[in-house]
């Protein structure tokens, strides 16, 4: 392994060096990047080469400066993008969406996560995104007959790179960022917004000529909005509402009250108070117990948790019987980030939602996409229909996903995921998450139908009544929720 490390060090040194004003590339820079790509192809199960390159931090010190300052060299640019896409591959994908549980592989997995978070911090630079935007714009603006296979492949790589960076999970414990503050994910989103990459993504979703990139853009959009609550995002405005002010004040009061109680408990614990003489057991004279002896009484406890067995170790739940953990974390992003994300959602609903969702559903029905693409489809139904319901509630903006065949499609996928929970036990978390997303999409469809049914518009009432009549007539739709509740298992089903 020492020989491999020596070769990797020599290859990294052949990339170039940082000058006083500009990064100076080595004459053998292109060959060095090709060699690094070959090294990564031959990486073993312990991912030693990937971890070595992550510890060397060549993404921040070498690759990104080359990307920014030598973007006019197309061959070198393509090689850098290929290497960046490889290095920023999500750790979950490397381990086939199953994080290792053994000690040593788990340590390698966490080490790769730290490297990915370090890469993501490097992508907060606006100049990096501006170069990517220029390359994407050049391909998109070209005529259809000018877009060869190489340009299409280059565009896909750039979109995958954006996906990889946004996919990096947040380290909330290390960042310690409260709500309404910009964490690392918000900083990357703001850099993308300043470089107008968000506008490029919006253009791709609105264009009929770029349908081959629809699935990539939907995945990017879902990662952009993964921490957001659709209702709160729809209600975000330049002037804070009275309800939002009251909610923030209430949260602050709760935090202050919690701190005050903790402080008082510490004072009581360490204060020099005299020990009570009657803290244990005592005898009640004149009262007989079951035998002829006097009755022995223990001190009464005001809290059931302060029982005699409170110091006993609780039974440890086996790993395979532990309830599923919910990985989704909702937080309030910085105010400026929420505003431009809200504007993006409004534009997406008005110009792209129906067209994009129709094409993606056709792709999923024909099984042309990847197995997990339906998860992003279900997420989009749930998020944007909830956003539309709390923003201005215009049915025409979400009409594509408000039909009986959509209910049938979601119901089929939920049933399929439920069967896979039984047959494919090694991937229970994956199938449970997909079923949960499908169920949330189904719930949002019902919420929208309820709002239509309660509307004063007779046309909306009639449409909702027609769909509900067909739904409640069919047994599989009517009994779906009841069957899921009857089969609920906290080990297999998420909460």
From TrEMBL:
<keyword id="KW-0175">Coiled coil</keyword>
<dbReference type="GO" id="GO:0043111">
    <property type="term" value="P:replication fork arrest"/>
</dbReference>
<keyword id="KW-0131">Cell cycle</keyword>
<dbReference type="Pfam" id="PF04821">
    <property type="entry name" value="TIMELESS"/>
</dbReference>
<dbReference type="GO" id="GO:0031298">
    <property type="term" value="C:replication fork protection complex"/>
</dbReference>
<dbReference type="InterPro" id="IPR006906">
    <property type="entry name" value="Timeless_N"/>
</dbReference>
<dbReference type="GO" id="GO:0009649">
    <property type="term" value="P:entrainment of circadian clock"/>
</dbReference>
<dbReference type="InterPro" id="IPR044998">
    <property type="entry name" value="Timeless"/>
</dbReference>
<protein>
    <submittedName>
        <fullName>Protein timeless</fullName>
    </submittedName>
</protein>
<dbReference type="GO" id="GO:0003677">
    <property type="term" value="F:DNA binding"/>
</dbReference>
<feature type="domain" description="Timeless N-terminal">
    <location>
        <begin position="22"/>
        <end position="284"/>
    </location>
</feature>
<dbReference type="GO" id="GO:0000076">
    <property type="term" value="P:DNA replication checkpoint signaling"/>
</dbReference>
<keyword id="KW-0539">Nucleus</keyword>
<feature type="coiled-coil region">
    <location>
        <begin position="233"/>
        <end position="267"/>
    </location>
</feature>
<dbReference type="GO" id="GO:0006281">
    <property type="term" value="P:DNA repair"/>
</dbReference>
């Amino acid at each position: 392994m020492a020989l491999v490390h020596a070769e990797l060090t020599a290859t990294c040194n052949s990339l170039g060096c940082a000058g006083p004003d500009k990064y100076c590339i080595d004459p053998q820079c292109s060959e060095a990047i090709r060699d690094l790509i070959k090294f990564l192809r031959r990486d073993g199960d312990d991912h030693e080469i990937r971890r070595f390159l992550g510890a060397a931090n060549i993404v921040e010190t070498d690759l990104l400066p080359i990307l920014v300052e030598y973007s006019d060299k197309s061959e070198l640019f393509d090689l850098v993008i290929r290497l960046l896409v490889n290095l920023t591959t999500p750790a979950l994908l490397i381990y086939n969406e199953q994080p290792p549980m053994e000690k040593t592989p788990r340590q390698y997995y966490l080490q790769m996560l730290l490297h990915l978070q370090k890469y993501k911090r490097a992508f907060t630079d606006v100049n990096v995104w501006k170069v990517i935007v220029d390359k994407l714009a050049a391909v998109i603006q070209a005529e259809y007959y000018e877009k060869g296979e190489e340009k299409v492949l280059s565009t896909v790589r750039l979109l995958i790179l954006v996906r990889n960076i946004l996919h990096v999970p947040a380290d909330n414990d290390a960042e310690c960022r409260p709500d309404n503050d910009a964490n690392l994910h918000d900083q990357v989103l703001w850099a993308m917004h300043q470089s107008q990459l968000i506008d490029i993504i919006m253009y791709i979703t609105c264009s009929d000529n770029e349908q081959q990139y629809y699935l990539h853009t939907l995945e990017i959009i879902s990662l952009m909005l993964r921490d957001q609550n659709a209702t709160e995002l729809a209600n975000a405005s330049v002037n804070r509402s009275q309800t939002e002010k009251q909610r923030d004040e209430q949260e602050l009061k709760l935090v202050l009250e919690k701190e005050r109680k903790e402080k008082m408990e510490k004072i009581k614990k360490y204060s020099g108070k005299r020990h009570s003489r009657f803290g244990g057991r005592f005898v009640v004279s004149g009262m007989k117990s079951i035998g002829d002896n006097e009755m022995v009484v223990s001190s009464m406890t005001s809290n059931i948790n302060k029982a005699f067995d409170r110091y006993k170790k609780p039974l440890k739940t086996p790993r395979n019987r532990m309830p599923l953990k919910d990985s989704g974390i909702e937080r309030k992003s910085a105010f400026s980030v929420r505003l431009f994300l809200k504007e993006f959602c409004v534009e997406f609903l008005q110009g792209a939602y129906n067209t994009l969702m129709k094409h993606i559903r056709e792709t999923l029905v024909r099984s042309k996409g990847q197995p997990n693409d339906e998860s992003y489809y279900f997420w989009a139904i749930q998020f944007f229909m909830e956003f539309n319901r709390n923003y201005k509630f215009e049915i025409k903006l979400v009409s594509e996903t408000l039909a009986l065949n959509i209910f049938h499609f979601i119901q089929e996928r939920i049933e399929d995921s439920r069967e896979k929970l039984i047959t494919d036990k090694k991937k229970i978390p994956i199938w449970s998450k997909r079923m949960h997303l499908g169920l949330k999409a189904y719930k949002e469809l019902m919420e929208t139908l309820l709002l239509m049914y309660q509307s004063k518009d007779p046309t909306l009432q009639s449409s909702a009544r027609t769909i509900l009549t067909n739904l409640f007539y069919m047994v599989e739709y009517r009994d779906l929720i009841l069957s899921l509740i009857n089969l609920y298992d906290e080990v297999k089903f998420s909460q």
